[in-house]
Amino acid sequence: MPTGFAAGKQWYRNARLRPLNGADEEVVSESARAFLPAERVTALLTRCLMNLGPKASIVNEDVRSLSVGDRDALLLYLHRLTFGHRIHAILACPQPSCKEKMDLELTIGDLLVPPNEQAEESYEMVISKNSTAYKVKFRLPTGADQEEVARLALRDRGAASRLMLRRCIQTVEREGTTIRINDKLPTAVAEMLPKMIAKLDPQAEVLLDMTCPTCRQHFIANFDIGDYFFRELMNHPQQLYREVHVLALHYHWNEREIMNMPRSKRQIYLELLAETLNSEGS
Fold first, then answer.
1. Which residue range is the domain that position 174 belongs to?
2. Structural domains counted in the chain
3. pLDDT in tens, 141-186
4. What is the pTM of this model?
5. Which of 130, 153, 276, 282 sits at 20 to 30 Å (Cα–Cα) from 164?
């Protein structure tokens, strides 16, 4: 993971994941309406993580405590385990008069950022503007923060961003005097701290530098791995049950056996079965 976490006096970046199986896909599909995106990420990673550092029994709170960038990195690794290392996406040109759709081919390696060798549980920085200096102690946003502001974001994205920032700030001092975080933040802090957080956790916001081949419009696109991952899983919501039906019909395995298979193994059997049926039909 690019940031990692502290456990005791040790700092850990290692995690172990297993690929998705049919039961995981079913849970994702059933939770689509009940859970918001950050909650779905927590639920899915909790199911698929086998280790976080030295810890082997992973619960929701462990995954919620991870930085946003670490959660996104784990989703990228989970995608590679489940679907492979290639990502195919479609982007639309933001120019209103164009809206041309563009095919985008990426790899997981294109999207993973190097680890932050200076990662800490919290950071202290001095933010200065107009000869006024503020000493700010803060931490990186976590999955818990995302879940907390998610419903507010549906109504007011600006208010959600401000709440997220306040949750991450631990103390603000001006000339040795502590400022109440619940009050309106100083303008300099509100403007500059998000940029510092983004620099410390670049995996949390992967930006793609794009140019439309039709109108030549240059634009920056935010690649949201969580949104892409779940769209890919739910692109054909009934496909999982069709696959279970076919395998159960021909191999006589029970539903639990098939649903516990990794997706890649299920696909291998389906391909072998298709080859057999085609050869028998010819």
1. 123-200
2. 3
3. 999 999 999 999 999 999 999 999 999 999 999 888 888 887 788 9
4. 0.90
5. 130
Whether residue 131 has pLDDT greater than 90: no
Instruction: Give yes or no: residues 152 and 91 share one domain.
Output: no
Asked whether residue 90 falls in the same domain as residue 226, the answer is yes
Residue 112 forms beta bridges with which residues?
A: none
Go through the chain and tell me how many residues it has: 282
The residues that bridge with 179 in the sheet, in sequence order, are 172
Residues 6+ away with beta carbon under 8 Å from 162: 185, 190
Alpha-carbon distances of 100 from 20, 91, 92, 210, rounded to whole Å: 34, 8, 5, 13
Residues 227 and 271 in one domain: no
Q: Which residues pair with 126 in a beta bridge?
A: 135
Distance CA 100, CA 24 (A): 35
Say if residues 158 and 146 touch (Cβ distance below 8 Å): no
| Whole-number Cα distances in Å, 238 to 25, 30, 255 | 11, 12, 15
E strands within the chain? 5-7, 10-12, 15-17, 49-52, 86-92, 101-107, 123-129, 132-138, 169-174, 177-179, 206-211, 218-223
Distance separating alpha carbons of residues 39 and 22, to the nearest angstrom? 19
The single-letter DSSP state of residue 180 is: P
Query: Using an 8 Å Cβ cutoff, are 95 and 212 in contact?
Result: yes
Domain co-membership, 186 together with 220: no
Q: Is 254 exposed, middle or buried (0-12, 13-18, 19+ CB in 10 A)?
A: exposed
Cβ neighbors of 160 (< 8 A, separation 6 or more) are 149, 150, 152, 153
